[in-house]
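User: Reviewer 2 asked us to show a designed sequence for the structure in our supplementary figure. I'm pasting the structure tokens here. Could you produce the per-position amino acids so we can include them in the response letter?
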């Protein structure tokens, strides 16, 4: 039992921080530009594929630097020559543009790399058990992922709160006209933020592509949960996205190992259910079976009782 708790905590931290790396860029883009980018998970996928292709020629470590930069440049180009053009037509046009972009990226990946999963492996230097807890090995690469993701959060927080560019970004969020009057290029700041958010998604793809599976469906698998993180944390709140990522990561991770059904829970209180009734299959559903839908159930509850999210601010 103790081993299950310890490793569930470790795995929930890893999964939660991966979700944060992916959702932090989307949070920045939405808070800065008001654009709910449905192609954000596709940039995550591009980061994984670019890292795989670069690692084939020059190894993992150059790919860790180069792949996010390439994705960031592509993201900046999308904002400059795509979103900026459709922005004047409103949020519906932006939504349709990003949805179409997601399909375009997915089909481009299918054309270039095919539909099969890529052999994107963990670098040999990190492919060893760092330590053994109880009877299970803790892989060094998992610890590396955790260190990089925590470091990214610290750097991102410091940049936004302690540097000049961070202050300009925050000011442009609430008073773009004033920032423009002071001589700053607000459209350029928007392009920088969109490119930076895309690069963060690309970094998550580099680290998560060999931890998960690098395949064309990876964007569709993680895309919905990222939007759950952003909404639960509070639209535009970086700290809220961090808390929500850890919370939802723990929710899913712990649920996987709980083999208890609703009938078992009611039996603890002396309630016996008819196993042959119309709802017999519902009583038999175990918590582990509901793991994939728990974040969305939590999202529904959040929208019902706290629509602004955990740390979202009410509009004045």
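Assistant: Here is a per-position design you can include in the supplement:
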């Amino acid at each position: 039992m103790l081993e299950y708790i310890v490793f569930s905590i470790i795995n929930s931290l890893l999964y939660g921080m991966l979700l944060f790396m992916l959702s932090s860029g989307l949070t920045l883009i939405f808070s800065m530009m008001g654009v709910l980018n449905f192609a954000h998970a596709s940039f995550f996928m591009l980061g994984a594929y670019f890292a795989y292709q670069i690692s084939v020629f020059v190894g993992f470590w150059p790919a860790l630097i180069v792949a996010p930069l390439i994705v960031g440049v592509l993201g900046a180009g999308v904002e400059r020559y795509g979103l900026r053009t459709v922005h004047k037509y409103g949020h519906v046009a932006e939504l349709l543009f990003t949805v179409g972009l997601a399909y375009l990226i997915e089909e481009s990946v299918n054309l270039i790399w095919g539909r099969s999963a890529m052999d994107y492996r963990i670098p040999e230097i990190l492919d060893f058990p760092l330590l053994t807890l109880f009877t299970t090995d803790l892989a060094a690469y998992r610890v590396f992922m955790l260190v990089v993701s925590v470091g990214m959060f610290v750097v991102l927080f410091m940049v936004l709160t302690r540097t000049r560019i961070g202050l300009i970004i925050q000011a442009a969020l609430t008073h773009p006209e004033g920032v423009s009057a002071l001589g700053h290029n607000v459209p350029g700041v928007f392009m920088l933020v969109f490119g930076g958010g895309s690069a963060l998604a690309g970094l998550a793809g580099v680290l998560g592509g060999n931890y998960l599976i690098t395949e064309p469906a990876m964007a569709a698998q993680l895309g919905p949960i990222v939007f759950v993180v952003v909404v639960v944390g509070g639209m535009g709140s970086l700290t809220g996205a961090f808390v929500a990522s850890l919370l939802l990561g723990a929710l899913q991770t712990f649920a996987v190992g709980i083999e208890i059904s609703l009938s078992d829970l009611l039996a603890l209180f002396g309630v016996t259910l008819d196993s042959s009734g119309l709802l017999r299959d519902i009583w038999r559903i175990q918590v582990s079976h509901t793991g994939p839908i728990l974040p969305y159930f939590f999202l529904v509850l959040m929208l019902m009782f706290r629509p602004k999210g955990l740390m979202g601010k009410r509009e004045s």
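For the response letter, you might also mention the following. The mean pLDDT is 84. The longest helix spans residues 2-33.
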